[in-house]
Amino acid sequence: MAYHFSDLNAGSVFQYDALWIELVRMSAVVCGAFMLRGCDWARWVALAWIGFHVILSAFHTLPELAMHCLFFAVIAWFLFRGDAARYFRGRRKAARSEAN
To answer: Which of left, alpha, beta for 38 (phi over 0: left; psi -120 to 50: alpha)?
Structure first.
């Protein structure tokens, strides 16, 4: 994130692309933090985030598309395998029992 902050300097024309890059990266950090807390919605947003990258890489080279597809598959596998589902489900049940 610090790398792209230099694109936001006041000496040049404001670059909206750099702002969008920072917002997307910040959303990834927020999703990561909330996944560690066991929030189910965060894993779906994280999967959508990498899916967005797959779509963007379709306009680039074939190796870039293949790499993003591989990342998508690996991340989806880790986020939706049985252990992960129990982790997110357990946190959801704990939150409901605390509310009651």
So the answer is: left
- pTM of the predicted model as reported, rounded to 2 decimal places: 0.69
Give which of 34, 41, 2 is closest to 18, Cα–Cα: 2
Residue-range definition of the domain harbouring residue 89: 2-99
How many domains in the chain? 1
3-state secondary structure of 24: helix
Tally of CA atoms within 13 A in the half-sphere of 6 that contains its CB: 2
pLDDT digits (tens, 9 = 90+) for 32-63: 999 999 999 999 998 998 898 899 889 999 99
Say which DSSP state 59 is in: T
Which tokens in the block code for residue 91?
A: 């946190």
